[in-house]
Amino acid sequence: MSLPFDLRPNPHPRPTAEREAILAAPGFGVSFTDHMAVATWTGADGWHDSAVVPYGPFSLDPATAVLHYAQEIFEGLKAYKHADGSVWLFRPDQNAARLARSAHRLALPVLSEEDFLASIDALVAADVAWVPSAPASGASMPLDNEQSLYLRPFMFASEAFLGVRAAQRVTYCCIASPAGPYFARGVHPVSIWISTTYTRAAAGGMGAAKTGGNYAASLVAQQEAATHGCDQVMFADAAEHAYVEELGGMNVYLVTSDAELITPELSGSILEGVTRDSILSLAREFGLTPVERRIGVTELLEGIDSGWVAELFACGTAAVVTPIGTLKNEQGTHQVGSGQTGETTAALRKNLLDVQYGRAEDTHGWLRRVL
Ligand code: COI
Question: At what angle do helices 92-105 and 274-282 cross, to 10 degrees?
Answer without folding.
Answer: 130
